[in-house]
Design a protein that fits this description.
- The protein is an alpha+beta fold and about 120 residues long.
- It is built from 2 helices and 6 strands.
- The chain has helices at about 80-85, 115-120, and strands at about 5-20, 25-35, 40, 55-60, 65-70, 105-110.
- Mean pLDDT is about 75; it is low at about 1-10.
Amino acid sequence: GMGAREVIPCYATATVKTATSSGEILEVACRFTMLWSTPIPLSDYLSAPLAQGVYEIGFGKNPLDAKYLGRAMGGTSTIRSRLSSHYNLHGNKHITSGNRNGLFVRWIQASHPDCTEARMLRK
């Protein structure tokens, strides 16, 4: 429907291993909402948020046939900056000048992108 979003499921908990500055490995349990944005053309990357999270790039808009899962770690690495790199051919080698205008993207903004990616890879 209009502006409908796919929700997978409302809340999920993932355990993520993360390293502290001293090199100690901690396991962190993260609770977050899995809420995909509505897919947009990759060429519209300037519409993407200046936020951290994960994103999928693929063919087709509804549904998105995802070919690539990436993450933006925050700071200077935002969803928008990562998609800009992909569109301008500085990212994944499978994105080319020949196919980039046929690609779509969707994202989930996350407080801890490691958590979201761990959850996605488990499903």
